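Help! Submission page says 'invalid entity' but I think these are all valid:
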Amino acid sequence: MKNDRSRPAPSLANPKRFLEIVHVILPWVGTLAGLLLLGGFYWALFEVPPDYQQGESVRIMFVHVPAAWMSLFVYGLIAVSSFVGLVFAHPLADVAAKTAAPLGAVFTALALVTGSLWGKPMWGAYWVWDARLTSELILLLIYFGYIALWYAIEDPARAGRVAAVFALVGAVDLPIIHFSVNWWHSLHQPASVLRMGAPTMSAAYLWPLGIMALGYTVFFIWLWLLRIRTEVRKRRLRSILLQGSTG
Amino acid sequence: MTALWALVVRDVRLALRAGGGTLLAAAFFATVAALVPLGVGPDLQLLARIAGGVLWVAALLATLLTLDRLFQVDFEDGSLDVLALSPVTLEAICAAKMAAHWLTTGLPLILLAPVLALLFNMNTEAYGVLLLSLGIGTPALTAIGHIGAGITVSLKRGGLILSLLVLPLEVPIIIFGAAAVMNAADGGQTALLLLAAFSLGAVILSPFATAAAVRLNLGS
């Protein structure tokens, strides 16, 4: 790798500085995530009244909807990190993109599983080719491809750049995929799809949903920082071992 | 321009000669299409209904088969490095390789499709739309496939991961392509227009993404 990419790094780009900051804030972020999730779960599972139409199964929404939000949000973060990594050669951007991907895949899988569990009482089947479920499924496949690509290329620097190209292509294609699946779904209108959620959601649902969404986000940030720290240490170890074997 | 033309001619020759993928992909296309009735039963009405979707899926898989060697042969024998060092930009080279690939993979599939449609008892009025949709859509298959091929060029076992990368990205093609054929009765126009929009975008953007990926894989 040529050395033409070195440039004065901004303060957070310095992995050492970054690790110091992470070390300080990590416990706080973790505590906040725990409090938000515990509070949100209690509110959603015990306090919220059952829906007049869906009954108790409406509670699945509080696990499902934030997971679906996160699945897209995390892909967006990966795309932004990839862009920063490709254009500015930010040393932590590749790491950030890599470590976010498995988390995003888990959120996507969670959205799919809870969605299909919710679908059973609502639609009478675990899986219907609903437009949003289908889009999530394809998003999960893209996550898998992205993660597999990271594992397939040995040199982390090259893997980061190549995976970034794929992440950006995916980011361009994802809205189109989403549109095409929506269009396809309206083309093959299935026999009976219950309209989920009245257009206006009552505040009794909106507040716990917001808390849960916030809890998911902070929880993700906590895990993300943890994983970035682990990855930086792993790379440091790798370079130490490589130096030892050559020197 | 002459250099690019020479590259197209070279790639077409290689595909046609050295036990190249051309006939293999077409044969694979026919085999997949022939297997489907064996799987779902010989009900002619059912077959007529699913013909468009099956032929489109088969075309997508057949194209996929040809992708993993696209850049890899040139990468292994070093000609990709020579191409990258030439005064012609790598983007233009990727575009030329795409043209050659479409001529040797997309075009034979289009020529073969009407024969297979016959086996599926497809509506006669849908033939034109099928050919049109394949004509519009196969360049997009080539374009997205090239991005995947460029990304995986330096991987030793790139074929499998290539399909994992490329197939989800090709979802819009299969949706619009198959929908055009299925709605052929009323022209399938919306689907064809959407397919054309996607295809144009993919063909224009692909050389840039492919060239970026190839450059990174060459390590420069």
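Support: the input was valid. A stray whitespace character was the problem, and the output above is from the cleaned input. The two ends of chain B are 25 Å apart (CA to CA).
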